[in-house]
Each structure stands twice: as structure tokens, then as C-alpha cells.
Design a protein that fits this description.
The complex is a heterodimer. Chain A is mainly alpha-helical. Chain A is about 75% helix and about 0% strand. By secondary structure, chain B is of the alpha/beta class. The chains are: A mainly alpha, B alpha/beta.
Chain lengths: ~290, ~325
Amino acid sequence: MANLKSLFPDRATFARSFRMAAWLGWQIESNWTDPFLFAIYSIIKPLSGAAILVVMYSIVSGGNFESPIFPYIYLGNAFYMYVGQVMTGISWAIIDDREHYKTLKYMYMAPIHMPTYLMGRGVARFIVASISVLITILFGVAFLHIQIDLAAVNWGLFFLSLAIGVVMLAMMGLILAGVTLMLANHVWFIGDATAGALYLFSGAIFPLDVLPAFLRPIGFIMPITYWLELLRRSLVGSVAQAFPTLAGFSNAQLLYILIGLTVAFGVLSAVVFHWCEFRARERGMLDMVTNY
Amino acid sequence: MEYAIHTEKLGRVYKLRHAKKEDPQELTALQDVNLQVKPGELFGLLGPNGAGKTTLIKILTTLLGPTSGVARVTGLDVTQEAQNVRARINMVSGGESSGYGLLTVRENLWMFSQFYGLPSKAANQRIAELLKIVGLEDRKNTKSSDLSTGLRQKMNIVRGFMTDPDVLFLDEPTLGLDVGASRDVRSFIRQWVDANPTRTLLLTTHYMVEADELCDRVAIINKGRVLACDTPANLKRGLQQDAIFKMMLSPLNGLNVTQLEALAGVKKVTHIPQDGAAELDLILESDEALGGLVTLLTSNDIHIRNLEKREPTLEDVFVDLVGHSMQEVEVRE
């Protein structure tokens, strides 16, 4: 009973854990430099990432920006920024608090709900990612002929998919946070390594059909695959549906799959994080500072 | 009676990393620790570095699981009811520079107050009061990254006291503080406990004077075991039938502690080598034992520069229990 209470504390505990973590996350994200530099960085960083991709695409395709593969890649890459920011950001909070600020033990000792706290820390990353995604897409529309017909956009599907996807990424971030709690050395790279690996298996920059057959199942069990497909379809429907991988699925079917996988990852994240937290506590790793 | 802190046969064994599978190595940090701390007590855990003090505090503050035994804080099991325990406790660790460097002192403290569910207005008022007490009022708008280690330590002391916990754990709270700041902190600790009989404070320290001055009761801990637990006065009273001397000498010229302890009536000798001199702390069964000791020293051409008889201290109690001074234990470990 006591353990159940620690899993599901009262509403006030949830609320203050989330609210204050979101506040703290924003302070950390926005206060590392002066506001002007922060604004410049927020614009330059996503555009630089997009520029690298555009140059690579240009070389490989011989400058064929009219091909439907270009918006496929461009939008997939743009929305993939959420993966790096939200999923990795949540697990990064563990490293930041434990190793950098040395406050993780005080957070653990406070009467908060740790998974909710970590989700809250992801809010600032979500805001930063949203700005980056918006800038990247606007840049694509303005300068790279990415054609988004605002009147044809399925806004309902877009925002619903986006919201479910962010929740899904937060759940995946929680799994990563649990693993981070259990690790000491090499823990700095785990977030980027995971995001990098999923980049290849989620249809972000190429359809899953391009992968060798034995690797495709990895992409099919990743909710990010369906999430990116739904976002593309909602923004540039006909272009996205031209690719065969998920062409057999309707939007509703993709949505159900995404919801199902999100729920599955939600359950998995709760179990994994709770187990990792328990083990980390048993091993005395909650306040371990490795300075690795 | 419901104790503020209650442990029964509490133990903690660490499995050492990088130990070979066929030869698993373990480190016993705590062994069969039985403690009962009453509400309203200022209780001290005294021991050298590595004695198990911090491990015990980590278990009591729900940061570390025990490998055996039971620990309860305010009647709640720290393993089974960790979340409820957390609402009733707080902790400050000395000698570390924790805190969000990007936030000001006031922001850091306010944020933690909100995590504990304190109303914002009351929290701000409490923060202002405590910052004034620790002398950090004029630095409240300074980013904590710009504070010295000592000032950060003061900020963390405020963080610990700010939530007015039922049980407060202070792990070497004056480590890294200058003499004046340490004195102020000690004075505030005592006032805080005395102001409300339901407040309990567990303090770990390896400063004997700090434990002696502050604590209602002290547990002396070494190698994970509690060797004695009583009021400082009672602990020292146990040595009062002994004669305790401090002797300043010329260097010992090859004479060693074992030879000195072999003399009749000499219970314990602690040798503290100094630059061109030697200090001996002596616990003798009676004043008469001093004669044989002086004879041995002078026959070895060692000159006595100063001899002082003094009252027993907690350091003497420690030496009596462990056989070595705390400093010696730390060096050996």
C-alpha cells in the first residue's frame, strides 16, 4: 500500500512537482546566456541542422528539390528535433541534477513525484524544440519550396498527433532516465546515442523500406515512426502518402497504433523507471557523483 | 514511545565494483546499528571519516536502502514509506557546493520551498529571516554560482531549516566554514532545536568539540558499529577515574607507543608527531603511573617540555573505545 502511494501520490504533489520542475527547466534553458544570444542561438541552431541536411540531399539528388522525398526528409528531420529535445532532455535532467548541480539527492528527499518532476523538466525542452521546429518549417516553406497549403492542412490530426507524440517521447525519456540512474560512466552519451540510433529506424529521413528487411521490424515497433508519418500526412497529405511503407494504413489506423504504442510505452516506462529507481537506491547511486 | 529515529540491527554492505566474479568483495559500512533518538533531541553521530556516519544518514533520509535491519523515522519505515518520510525530513550535507548556479540564492531557496508545498508568501518571509540569521541577506540576489563554497554552504543550511522539518539531518554541517561562521551555525542549530520540543536533529561530525558543545546525546561510531551512546557528560564520566595528561616532549628518539603502553598503569597513549617535538595524550589508571613513564622518557634522553593534567574529552572517550585517536584511524583507513 505504501509503495502504491509513492507511485500515485496526491494531486497537489503531482501539480507542484510538474509546475516547479517546468519553472526550473525554463530557468536553466533560458538563463545560460543573455536573452539576445539565446534568441540568436534558438534560430541559428535549427537552421544549421536543416542546412546540413539540405546540402547533403542536394548533393545526393543532384539538386532535385521537386521530388516528394525532399519534403518527406525535411519535415521528418524537423519534427525529429522533438525526439532529441524532449526524450533526451528528460533523461538529461538526471545527469544535470546528479553530476552538475549535485541536487538530485535533495530532489529525491523532497516530497515530490520524481517521474512528474522529470516530465516537468522536459517542458522547457518542448518549448525550445517547438520554436526550432517552427523556424525550420518556416524556412523550408520560404526558401526551399516546401509546399504546405494551410487550407489543406488537417489541423485536428496535426495537433492531436503532436500532443500524443510529445507524451510518447516523454514516456521514452522516462525509460532513458531510469537507465541513466543506473549508470555511472558513459552516461553522458546515452541520450544522444539513443536519439541517434532511433533516427535511422523511425523513418525520419528515409522510408523504412530502404532498410534491410531484418531491420525493418525495429522501425515498426517504434511509435516515433507512426508519429512522424501522421505529422507529415496532416501537413502535406498527398506527398506523405506517396511512400509505400505505411500507405496501407489510414490516418485513423495510424492514430490508433500510435495511441496503443504510447500506452504501452507509458506502462513500460512506469515499470522500468520504478525498477531502476529501486535498484539505484539499493546500490547507492541516487547521489553518486562520478565527474566522469 | 514513538521515537523520532529508531533503528534495529541496521546494516549496509556494499558490493565493491570491479571485484572479480569468483572473488566478490564486500565492504561492511554499517553493522547491527541500534539507535533510538527521542523527539526533541539533538543527537550526534561522532566518528572518523569512513566510520559509516554518512551511510547511516543516507539510509535514514531514504537515499539508500539498508541490506539488513529496520530504520524508522517519525515512526515510518524508510524503505516501505519513503514518500511519507520525505515530507517530514530535510538534510544538509557539508563540504559540497550543490545548488542551481544559474539561479539566485533567493530563487534556489524559493524553488525548494515550493517543492515542499510551502505557501509562497510564507516561504519568502521564512527565507528572508533565515538569510539574515546566517548573514547572507545581502547576497540574496546573487547567482549561487558566484558564491564561495562557504556561502553556498550557508545557503544550503537555510534550505535545510527553511521547511521546518520534524527531523533534520546535518551531515558535517560546518565542514568548509570559517571559524566565525561555524560558531554562528552551531549557535543557530541549538536555538532551532530548543525553540520547539518536537524538532529533532541528527548531526554527524568528526569535530569532537562540536559534538560536545551541541549534542544532548552522542553515539560514537567506528567501522560501521556503534561503540557507545550516551550524553557527552556520561561518556566522559566513564573516564573520570582515569588520569588524563597531555605531554609535550622532544622527539621520541625511537621510543614507540607500544613500549609506553607496556608500562604499569598506562592505559592508552596517543602520539602526535610535531615539527621537532612530540605530543603525547595519555590515559593513565592513576597519577602514580606517571612516575614510571617519566623515568622511561628521561632514560631515553627525551625532554619533557610541558605537562598538563586535563579533564576527559570526547576524544579521550574515542581513544579509550577504539584504541587510537580519530586522526590515526583516518590515516590508517
